[in-house]
From TrEMBL:
Keywords: Ribonucleoprotein, Ribosomal protein. This is 50S ribosomal protein L33, chloroplastic. The keyword Ribonucleoprotein applies. The keyword Ribonucleoprotein applies.
């Protein structure tokens, strides 16, 4: 009888710059509480301005936080 692993409550997301510089921030998000895509106005040092950052998926497969340590 195999026990199922619990699904992680938080996932890492990427906030990608709308300026097209390739700069990004990494943030944790609880997808059960926040259903819509995140958008923030943050500083992009490559253009030296505040620009819109929108949510994108992380590229690595280890994008979940495992809170269940066994």
């Amino acid at each position: 009888m195999g026990s199922k692993k619990k699904k992680a409550a938080s996932v890492f997301i990427r906030l990608v710059s709308a300026a097209g510089t390739g700069f990004f921030y990494v943030k944790k998000k609880n997808p059960r509480k926040i259903l819509e895509k995140l958008e923030f106005r943050k500083f992009d040092p490559r253009v030296n301005r505040h620009v819109l950052f929108t949510e994108a998926k992380m590229k690595s497969s280890a994008n979940t936080l495992n809170t269940d340590l066994r």
